[in-house]
Amino acid sequence: MLDPRQIQQLHSLLETQRVATDAATLQSHGLDWTRYYTPAPAAVVFPKTTEEVAALVRWATQEKVALVPSGGRTGLSGGAVATQGEVVVSFDRMNAILDFNPVDRTVRCQAGVVTAQLQDFAADQGLYYPVDFASSGSSQIGGNIATNAGGIKVVRYGMTREWVAGLKVVTGTGEVLELNQGLAKNNTGYDFRHLFIGSEGTLGFIVEATMQLTRPPAPLSVMVLAVPALAGIMEVFNAFRQRLDLTAFEFFSEKALRHVLARGQVQRPFEGESDYYVLLEFECVNSTTEETALLLFEECMEAGWLVDGVLSQSEEQARALWRLREDISESITPYRPYKNDIAVRVSAVPPFVEALDAVLAREYPDFEVVWFGHIGDGNLHINVLKPDALALAGFREACERVNAEVFALVRRFGGSMSAEHGVGLLKRDYLDVTRSPEDIALMRGVKAVFDPLGIMNPGKLLA
């Protein structure tokens, strides 16, 4: 914890009202959506400028105080949790869009800009920022970059990494680095920009980002399709992506859908039920696109891969269909789900899912398991729901025992134990599922270069 002298030093670095030590702020800014940790930061600070962040880091190096970055706090792996008396550095006040270049189609913004704010700004310029997910209304660009966020459009547009043209960062020694400066071509050695993308604040803090924009898509249509068997999902994917410009291909189970419907805010897409569903979105690039989609639907029905489906007839209906998938996380949050966010190569999805389904049925006979994910890029979200009668600690222990089985399967298929949620605290001890001992040793060496005192988000990603 901080002593009174150190608290006074923070007041000297920032305006008094931007240093918080009250219990409510410590609680709200000391954790993310992970609910397995008790927040215990010593203070929360709210810088407004790069210079203030650099000054805070230099102070932390002198005082040997650990710092934890805090963005929208929508993470699911404990990457923004402060449990050991750290100082939380919130980027809520660094939320300005600083510059727009219409020729380069780039926008420079501070790290605290909310994802939806950037999306809206791009739309106002007649352009498009394509990285999208359920938390876009609260997640921040700096956090998106620090975790290399993915979301629902990856099958077409890729991860956040694809859209970062430049970064300004503050390292663990308080140095300010300009990385790539928005260049399309810059073949001058090591690209430190990509080291910071996905680094979870362990090398330094992202304070500004130059983000690439693109043209808006053609009008989008959405289909929700009922798939009776897991094996049919990838067959449907292969059929549709060969002839349509897919922007999303999502998957969810009937169990997941029931939780969404129980809230009473959306309706079942069609009368019948199915064990599994896919939601696909595509650009209507010409007048025959929807005819092609309906023809593909008929072909998949004849092949036995589908049993029902619906095609949106308006933007309003498309938004309603998307809610069937996008509202899942919020609808199951009261059940304190234990989440695994895993990925394999798209070609390996069918055999992997078959093997995983057997493991989950065997190991979780008494728990409800909810499946959904971005299956078009090989990413599955497995959510185990906590029974009311079981204490949180006992539930987590039971889930972590099964992790050995699940991650052994991930390793066998050459997959990732964290596809897009990051590693943080929750998955840190499983890093060797995906990374070799040599990889991890080199990662520690990189951290030591940028953060020699180990004060930047310590304990996250690397033990």
UniProtKB/TrEMBL annotation:
Concerning Pfam families, the annotation shows: FAD-oxidase_C, FAD_binding_4
Which cofactors are reported in the record for this sequence? Answer: FAD
GO molecular function annotations of the record: FAD binding; oxidoreductase activity
A GO BP entry:
respiratory electron transport chain
Entry-linked PROSITE patterns: FAD_PCMH
State the UniProt keywords alphabetically. Answer: FAD, Flavoprotein, Oxidoreductase
The protein's matches in SUPFAM superfamilies, at most eight in alphabetical order, are given as:
FAD-binding/transporter-associated domain-like (SSF56176), FAD-linked oxidases, C-terminal domain (SSF55103)
Q: Where is the FAD-binding PCMH-type domain?
A: 37-216
Q: Which family does it belong to?
A: Belongs to the FAD-binding oxidoreductase/transferase type 4 family.
Q: What is this protein called?
A: FAD/FMN-containing dehydrogenase
Q: Which organism is it from?
A: Gulbenkiania indica
